[in-house]
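Quick illustration, no need to memorize.
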Amino acid sequence: MSDVKPIAPVRIGQTDIVYAQGVRAGSWLFFTGHEATDFEHGIAAPVAGKPGLPLGGAPRYLREGRFIFDRFARLIAGEGGDLRHIVRVDQYYPRAECVNPYQRARKALLKDYVPPSTSVLMEELLTVGANMNVSLLAVLPGEGREPRAARPEGVPVPQHSGFIASLACGDYVFVAGQMPNNEAMTGLDPKAYRPPNAVWNGTDIRLQTEFLITGRLKPGLEAGGSSLKNAIKAQVYLTDINDLPEFMDVWNAHFADSPCALTVVATKGLALLESKIEINIFGVRDAGRIRKQVVDHKASAHMRLGPAAVRAGDLLCLSALYAADDDGALPAVRASAGLRYLGAPAQHQMRAILGAAAEICQAGGTSLDNVVRAHHFVGDLNVVYPALRIWQEKLDGAPIPFGAVRTTPSIPHCDIVMDMWAYRPG
């Protein structure tokens, strides 16, 4: 018996895939991978507008943002929550011009309370014509869960988005996506800047990563009473995936003794052109009741970049998983590459990923049935349907809380990277 409840499950386009628009797990509400779709034909008619009046009505991207947040408002209210208890928002867009209209729509509804946010560009979204893919995490009111802004010193906030840089909620601290920008948001911070004529005076990715960890993530966590040692989960976006080894070298120098779950994927672009990296993170308060626990799983060591998972209270956060061994993509994946349009490599990848995830969840005191957030970062959107079929096998047809965006993979033939959170009851 699962300890999570799907919210407003919907069958997509009369197929066999049932999407969980949200998940309620204890006091948490998860909403993953939302696009402005009607779930039957594609982009919802109010967003698409009239074909004969392509420039009529409100701006297209503004309509899209409003549609998504109106849906969030209804879903959250239906569970007894409200918009002022959202604690984190993640957004993916295929092009930069979508961002400002979306942020205007978001701010019109959320007013002066915009929770920690991460916005990055991805190659393509799942619904044809979609321009924004949004996930959020909220808590139910009561029992000391009132979110409060932490306001770390020296961590600037972009004027147009106006999000809260660091937010404390109970024993949890959420830090918005951070880039190595200066306080005026006009370029890189001097500590992260390498003059273009300083050919080997450090490297951009090392300078920017070091600055982000020490000058943004550390103060962001500390403002809410947490610290790097009590970080639970980080998501990292690289504008050049070839920077991964250098990034990991800097990252492990800070987190080797107390690792946090880690997801690293490529992004098509960030808000600051000079930035090569953006990172968001969350942790638990040093003096709180909830303690951090690293979960080990030796069998998946070659399938991830961070620890198998980190447990904190009733949350279990897995490091992103991909179907690899110490030689690269698993043999079954490579051997079936010629059958990609029949879904064979994707299904081999997903069976390996979900098999490992099930064992990690068990080691962390829960089960795959209790996954509340499953982001698929894929190299080809054609893999999404066969991937979801394997989810169906594992979950006996239960609704799936999934999102999917296209990006550039870091390992040849490993075109699915899975980022998962699970609920751990009790």
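The helical segments are 45-48, 60-78, 99-110, 204-223, 244-255, 331-335, 344-363, 384-395.
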